[in-house]
């Protein structure tokens, strides 16, 4: 299954950069651990090569731009900060994209953009090959508008748990 993991957010806006930090660590784990690779046998050799089972990328945009990046993948894992005020800062949640009650709230960067769910629906109607499954790994955060490349202590402490959540989703 062709899988894409995307760390979302802005790495210079404090806790909003947690998606990027998690994605960086996931990429290191995937690249170094053969358990996260798929075996491929070349036609003219008996040597088995291993290729990563998932691609890792980073993005600061959502909506239509993000939807375009998902074309050609069967499964996507999005890693991002989330500010709900319903969980302690640093809490990690895993849920399907469809579970977001109001996907447009606070995520549209311009009046010409739309939510990712609406963009995916539109792309499918246009016949684009888009993932059937989009999973969100979210870290509860508060400092998402502070100019800083550092995460707050509770969000930084959540990074290993979010990394493990992504790796668990890959299995």
How would you characterize the overall build of this protein?
With 171 residues, the protein is α/β, with parallel strands linked by helices. The protein has one domain (3-170): Rossmann fold, CATH 3.40.50. The chain has helices at residues 18-32, 63-69, 116-125, 153-170; strands spanning 3-8, 37-40, 49-52, 54-59, 75-82, 92-96, 133-140. The strands form two sheets. Strands 4-1-5-7-6 form a five-stranded mixed beta sheet, covered by helices on one side. Strands 2-3 form a two-stranded antiparallel ribbon. A hairpin with an 8-residue loop joins strand 2 (37-40) and strand 3 (49-52). Helix 1 (18-32) packs across helix 4 (153-170) and helix 2 (63-69) packs across helix 3. The longest helix is centred in the C-terminal third of the chain and has 18 residues, at 153-170. The protein is globular.
């Amino acid at each position: 299954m062709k899988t894409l993991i995307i760390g979302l957010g802005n790495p210079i806006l404090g806790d909003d950069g947690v998606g990027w930090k998690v994605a960086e660590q996931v990429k290191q784990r995937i690249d170094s651990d053969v358990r996260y690779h798929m075996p491929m046998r070349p036609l003219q050799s008996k040597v088995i090569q291993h290729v990563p089972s998932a691609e890792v990328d980073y993005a600061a945009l959502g909506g239509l731009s993000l939807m375009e990046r998902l074309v050609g993948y069967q499964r996507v894992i999005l890693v991002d900060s989330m500010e709900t005020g319903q969980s302690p800062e640093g809490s990690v949640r895993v849920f399907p994209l469809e579970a977001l009650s109001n996907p447009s709230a606070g995520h549209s960067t311009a009046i010409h953009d739309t939510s990712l769910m609406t963009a995916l629906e539109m792309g499918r109607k246009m016949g684009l090959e888009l993932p059937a499954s989009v999973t969100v790994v979210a870290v509860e955060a508060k400092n998402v508008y502070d100019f800083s490349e550092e995460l707050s202590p509770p969000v930084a402490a959540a990074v290993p748990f979010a990394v493990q959540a992504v790796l668990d989703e890959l299995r």
